[in-house]
Amino acid sequence: MTTTTPRRARLLFTLAITPLLRWAIAAHSVPDDQPWRTACTCGRPLWASTAAPTGRCTGCGQRTPYTVETATVLAAVALTLTGQSGWTLAAYAWWTATMIVLVFVDLAAMLLPLRISITSTAGFLGLLAVAGDHHAWRRAAVAAVTLAVLLAVLAVLARGQLGWGDVTVAVPLAAALGWNSWRAVYAGMLLGFGSAALAAITLRKIGRLPRGAALPLGPFLIGAALTVVLWP
């Protein structure tokens, strides 16, 4: 078997799960006080309108942009290049898929659903528990709890400037970074908050972000964590 065969199989698997990611994004891209979306705007079941290979609703013809597929394929390629394998690769693939969902949901609805963060963390730590590196697993778990507590305190002190969704997403982010090292945790958080602050300042300077408006922090934190994980 050539080395290209496993890579081709991973790519095909990546493309196969993108309908599920599209559905998860569409279902959760609603205000926090509303239930999950279950139907397209035309009334057709949401699964049927998002899970088709074309991403086009069979009722109204509305099509989901291929940005989800693009992000998923790029992430899969980057994961392959890291050289990870076995349960570690499975854990980071699971984590990356859930992070992609969170990024698109936050961009669409300024929301980071707690249920996705919990699912991401549980799956990630569960798969890594099988990997056998108990020292790294404990570091990941401690990093997740520590960062969540620190951000929770900061959220209380900031009085609304830091959302609770940003606090909860810190758990899977810190776990993924902590599996590598404490240095990765520091680098990921510094890069995430730093890039968000820089973007906010720049957008306000050019008049694209009104005073008092906020940027979704999740994509910056997640993007920074992905950068540190995939290109350590």
UniProtKB/TrEMBL annotation:
UniProt entry keywords in alphabetical sequence: Membrane, Methyltransferase, Signal, Transferase, Transmembrane, Transmembrane helix
Domain Prepilin type IV endopeptidase peptidase: 97-201
Gene Ontology MF terms: aspartic-type endopeptidase activity; methyltransferase activity
Transmembrane regions listed in the UniProt entry: 140-162, 182-201, 213-231
InterPro entries linked: Prepilin_IV_endopep_pep, Prepilin_peptidase/N-MTase
GO cellular component: plasma membrane
Any one biological process term the GO annotation gives: methylation
Domain of life: Bacteria
Signal peptide from the UniProt entry: 1-26
Family per similarity comment: Belongs to the peptidase A24 family.
Protein name according to UniProt: Leader peptidase (Prepilin peptidase) / N-methyltransferase
